[in-house]
Amino acid sequence: MIKIGLTGSIGMGKTTTGQMFVARGCPLHDADATVHRLYSERAAPLIEEAFPGTTSPQGVDRAALSKHVIGKPEAMKRLEAIIHPLVREEEKEFFEMAKLDGSQIVVLDIPLLFETGAEDRVDVIVVVSAPEDIQRQRVLARDGMTEDKFAAIKARQMPDAEKRHRADFIVDTGQGLEAAQAQVDSILATIKSRLAADA
């Protein structure tokens, strides 16, 4: 089973690209969606203990939590020490299910793949990228996003040029959906031909 690590900086079109892989039959494990679910389930009491006043009966209040951690590296490390092991557990279960289903190629959507040293957990790295002006436009159009918030998020992320340099494949989403889909098809064709050659 080939594990594709899908990553890219904020606003690059990673979620949309991930869905293109899903549409082509590749199971996808979304780290962000997993974190979101964990925030409303078993991670909530652990986070409340570490950061009092950041949860409600519905789970973690993301706005309250971000005040505790954004721009505070030590606090962010504390949060990651709670969340990362839980995400890894879920990832393991995902692999087991994919194996049972006979999947040949699976996708791990990991926003901070390089930043968290997750390269060794995947076989192939696909970086989703777009020109900086398109990225800025997409991000600042999001609800509640500000220039400061965008700058703080970018500061935590490896520069796009460095990610592109480290990638096995790049999907450029700045050229529209059809072009991105063609790039995904090409990546999957390459991986499948490698699998056939190894068989």
Automatic annotation (TrEMBL):
Q: Which is a Pfam family this sequence falls into?
A: CoaE
Q: Keywords on this record?
A: ATP-binding, Coenzyme A biosynthesis, Cytoplasm, Kinase, Nucleotide-binding, Transferase
Please name the GO terms of the biological process aspect recorded for this protein, alphabetically: coenzyme A biosynthetic process
The Enzyme Commission number assigned here is 2.7.1.24
* Record bears the keyword RNA-binding: no
Record has Chaperone as a keyword: no
Q: EC top class, in one word?
A: transferase
Query: What is catalysed by this protein?
Result: 3'-dephospho-CoA + ATP = ADP + CoA + H(+)
Q: Provide any one GO MF term from the record.
A: ATP binding
Q: In which pathway does it act?
A: Cofactor biosynthesis; coenzyme A biosynthesis; CoA from (R)-pantothenate: step 5/5
Entry-linked InterPro entries: Depp_CoAkinase, P-loop_NTPase
Q: Which domain of life is it from?
A: Bacteria
> Record's PROSITE patterns?
DPCK
Q: Which residues bind ATP?
A: G11, M12, G13, K14, T15, T16
Location comes to: Cytoplasm
**Which SUPFAM superfamilies does the UniProt entry name for this protein?**
P-loop containing nucleoside triphosphate hydrolases (SSF52540)
Task: Name a single GO cellular component.
Answer: cytoplasm
Which family does the entry's similarity section mention?
A: Belongs to the CoaE family.
Q: What does this protein do?
A: Catalyzes the phosphorylation of the 3'-hydroxyl group of dephosphocoenzyme A to form coenzyme A.
Q: Which HAMAP family match?
A: Dephospho_CoA_kinase
Q: What is this protein called?
A: Dephospho-CoA kinase
Q: What is the species listed in this Swiss-Prot or TrEMBL entry?
A: Cohaesibacter celericrescens
